[in-house]
Design a protein that fits this description.
The protein is of the alpha+beta class. The protein contains three helices and 14 strands.
């Protein structure tokens, strides 16, 4: 019995020793990561993204007549990216234009007859209303026909195709994703305490993993809000100069020099 009590007392004593050691070690651990000083380099993960990118969708119920670019192809601003088979829409537009022209001619005749007191003012007003109605219909058809061709809003490259030539698509159907690869941004998240020295124009170097090359860049935009949970802020930068080898989706690490 005495030996059992001694073992229990010894276990309790060992537990107190471990607890006391942990209490003394905690302050040392908390001080193991000091704040960066004025000469330290701070590395942050970054990702390259296109400054402009969009997914073009169909606004018509029609068959795709031409889809000249494939994934990876480059195009210029204003070039045709998608053309639809719009024979029916063109015919309807021509019919609406003819109806509008006939209404205008009728109005001219009625105005002349009104000058001769052959018809009343109401007939002229009705003819004028008919002109407005048919011109509105013609305008709507012109707007529809204008959607038969999708042109590039900016120069760039095709990132992904969502449709195929000769496929019948409905309004809202995604057709292709395009990127402006001429201007890329470096997006990153940095500690909010860096705002004490970080500003638009601050310089940094970045190592791109895929190419294993170093580039220089500068900050172009600082986020408008601090994340209260992570105490971080979004940051955007640009690489200095033109580098056609850089592509959206590449990643790396940016190194900042603390400026105090």
């Amino acid at each position: 019995m005495e030996n059992v009590l001694r073992r229990q007392i010894g276990s309790v004593g060992a537990a107190w020793v471990l607890a006391a050691g942990a209490c003394h070690a905690a302050p040392a651990a908390s001080g193991a990561a000091p704040a960066p000083d004025g000469g330290a380099d701070n590395r942050i993960r970054v990702q390259l993204v296109a400054y402009q990118q969009t997914i073009l969708s169909s606004e018509l119920s029609a068959k795709i007549a031409a889809l000249p670019f494939r994934e990876g192809d480059s195009f210029k601003a204003g070039q045709t990216l998608v053309a639809f088979d719009c024979g029916l829409f063109h015919a309807q537009s021509n019919k609406a234009e003819a109806a509008a022209d006939a209404a205008r001619q009728t109005l001219k005749v009625d105005q002349r007859l009104a000058q001769l007191d052959a018809i009343g003012a109401l007939d002229v007003d009705l003819a004028a209303a008919k002109v407005r109605e048919t011109e509105a219909e013609a305008g709507a058809m012109r707007a529809t026909v204008s959607k038969c061709v999708l042109v590039a809003p900016f120069a760039g490259r095709v990132a992904r195709l969502e449709a195929h030539a000769f496929e019948y698509v409905a309004p809202g159907k995604p057709l292709l994703e395009i990127l402006d690869t001429r201007r890329l941004e470096l997006q990153m998240i940095v500690p909010s305490r860096w705002l004490a020295w970080l500003k638009v124009g601050s310089r940094f170097s970045v190592r791109v993993d895929e190419l294993e090359r170093d580039y220089t860049g500068h900050v172009v935009r600082v986020g408008a809000r601090i994340d209260p949970v992570s105490q971080s802020v979004a940051l955007a930068g640009e690489v200095d100069g033109a580098h056609p080898e850089l592509l959206p989706g590449m990643s790396g690490a940016a190194s900042f020099k603390v400026e105090r």
